[in-house]
Design brief:
The chain has three helices and ten strands; from the N terminus they run ααββαββββββββ. By secondary structure, it is mostly beta strands. The strands form three sheets. Strands 3-10-7-8 form a four-stranded mixed β-sheet, with no helix packed on it. The chain has a four-stranded antiparallel β-sheet with strand order 4-5-6-9, with no helix packed on it. Strands 1-2 form a two-stranded antiparallel ribbon. β7 and β8 form a beta hairpin. The protein starts with 7 loop residues before the first helix and ends in a 6-residue tail after the last strand.
Length: 195
């Protein structure tokens, strides 16, 4: 009977040859078509699923500047003629209570901002007859406070039929501004001295 003795080096060489043979049977060592598509494939759990990413979804989402009300424009008081600042001459008082904005990219360099504003109007001791018209101003500025877009939006509110108090709301769909530079959206009542 003949004994076969295998050294440690021989075992290592045989194992290496076996691994190379197995890998050679699985495919080539070059870049395969599957490797090129790795950027388009999501890996989840123990497998992969083909789910290409649509870049237009991200391209349509523009930076959206923050929105706020200037301190001197969230209340509007209207007085009867000749009774300015007289509490007994107050016709109505309007307030801005809630506001929001939503931005969408248009082309390469512009975006549209959809602005929603709501509030309340309360009749004063000298109420006016008929509906009141609130001068709502929407403006977009840059970092230097330069106005990039401005709209005066009349909001009609009927007080008589509401018993002296009424809620109001207005949505402006399409305020268009350049993406670069737009840093703030302002809403508030136009008091006639600021545009």
């Amino acid at each position: 009977m003949m004994r076969l003795t295998i050294s440690g080096r021989m075992v290592g060489a045989l194992a290496g040859a076996l691994c190379l043979g197995t890998l050679a049977g699985c495919g080539s060592f070059g870049v395969s078509d599957k490797a090129e598509s790795v950027g388009k494939t999501f890996v989840s759990g123990g497998g992969t699923t083909e789910s290409p990413v649509d870049p237009s979804i991200f391209a349509s989402q523009a930076y959206c500047p923050p929105i706020e009300v200037r301190a001197d424009t969230y209340i509007l008081k209207a007085y009867a003629r000749g009774k300015q600042d007289d509490p007994e001459g107050l016709q109505y008082q309007a307030t801005v209570r809630k506001y929001a904005r939503e931005c969408n990219r248009v082309g390469e360099n512009e975006m549209t901002i959809k602005v929603g504003v709501s509030g309340r109007v309360v009749a004063g001791p000298s109420p006016t007859r008929g509906p009141v018209v609130l001068p709502l101003r929407i403006a977009v500025t840059n970092d230097d406070n330069k106005v990039l877009a401005s709209q005066l939006v009349p909001v009609e509110v009927g007080l008589a039929e509401a018993g002296g108090s009424a809620a109001w709301a207005r949505v402006v769909e399409d305020v268009r501004v350049p993406i670069e530079g737009a840093s703030r959206v302002y809403v508030g009542f136009d008091n006639g001295s600021k545009r």
